[in-house]
Design a protein that fits this description.
The chain is about 70% helix and about 0% strand. By secondary structure, the protein is mostly helical.
Length: about 240
C-alpha cells in the first residue's frame, strides 16, 4: 500500500471513530447523549489506536501533519514523502468526517444548538484567547510528538507490538490533562478537513464554521510538533 493510500485509510478511521464519539455524546437523541468528556477522550484514544494498527505497517501511521512535519524536520521522514503524507491525511480526514455525517444523518435536525453540530467536526476554545489557545495547542502537540518518538526509540517496547496502544493511551492522557482549554486538536488535518466538511455539507441549522479560530488548531500543532521532534532529537541519545 502506498503512503498516500495508507494515510487516507488510517486518518479516515481516526476521524470516523473520533468525531463519531463526539457526535454520539453531543447530538440529540443519540443513545450516548450526555455521556461526557471521559467517553470522548477514551473514544479518540481508541480511534488513534485502531488507526495505527490498521496502517502502521505501510506508512508508519503518522495520521497527523504535525507528526509528519516534525519527523521530517529531524530527518526521520524524507521531505520528498511529506506531500504524500499530508495529502493522505487531509483527504482521509475529510472522508472520515463525511462518514460521521452520514452515520448520524437522523440526529442533525433534532439537535437545535449549532455549536454542538460544529463541535462534532472541529474544536473550539472553552475561553477564547488567541495567545492562550495557541500555546495550549503547542504544548499538547509537543507532548504528543516527543512521547511518540520516545516510545518508538524503545526497542523493547516496539518489539512487544504494543506501541500503537501506548500512543492511544498517550492521546487519552493529553485529552484528559490538556484537552479542557481548546478541545486538544493536536492535529491540523483532524480539525481543518472536518471543518471544511462542516462548511460544505447540508447540515440543517448548522451555523457558521468559525473560520476566525480555524488557524489556531493548524498553526499551533505544527509549531508544537516541530519543537517536540527537535527536543527529542537534542536530548535523546542517537
Amino acid at each position: 500500500m502506498s503512503i498516500f493510500g495508507a494515510e487516507v485509510i488510517g486518518t479516515a478511521l481516526l476521524i470516523l471513530l473520533g468525531d463519531g464519539v463526539v457526535a454520539a455524546v453531543l447530538l440529540s437523541q443519540s443513545k450516548a447523549e450526555n455521556s461526557g468528556w471521559i467517553v470522548i477522550t477514551f473514544g479518540w484514544a481508541m480511534g488513534v489506536t485502531m488507526a495505527i494498527f490498521a496502517v502502521g505497517q505501510f506508512s508508519g501511521a503518522h495520521l497527523n501533519p504535525a507528526v509528519t512535519i516534525g519527523l521530517a524536520t529531524i530527518g526521520n521522514t524524507e521531505w520528498s514523502d511529506v506531500p504524500k503524507y499530508l495529502a493522505g491525511e487531509f483527504v482521509g480526514a475529510f472522508i472520515g468526517a463525511l462518514l460521521v455525517y452520514v452515520s448520524y444523518s437522523n440526529h442533525w435536525r433534532p439537535t437545535e444548538d449549532p455549536g454542538l453540530k460544529l463541535a462534532v467536526f472541529c474544536t473550539a476554545p472553552a475561553i477564547r484567547n488567541t495567545v492562550a489557545n495557541l500555546i495550549t495547542e503547542i504544548i499538547g502537540t509537543f507532548v504528543l510528538v516527543f512521547v511518540v518518538l520516545a516510545i518508538g526509540a524503545d526497542k523493547i517496547t516496539v518489539a512487544t507490538g504494543l506501541a500503537g496502544l501506548l500512543v492511544g493511551l498517550l492521546v487519552l492522557a493529553i485529552g484528559l490533562s490538556l484537552g479542557g482549554p481548546t478541545g486538544y486538536a493536536i492535529n491540523p488535518a483532524r480539525d481543518l478537513s472536518p471543518r471544511i466538511a462542516h462548511a460544505l455539507l447540508p447540515i440543517p441549522g448548522k451555523g457558521d464554521s468559525d473560520w476566525g479560530y480555524a488557524w489556531i488548531p493548524v498553526v499551533g500543532p505544527i509549531i508544537g510538533g516541530i519543537i517536540g521532534a527537535v527536543a527529542f532529537d537534542a536530548f535523546y541519545p542517537g
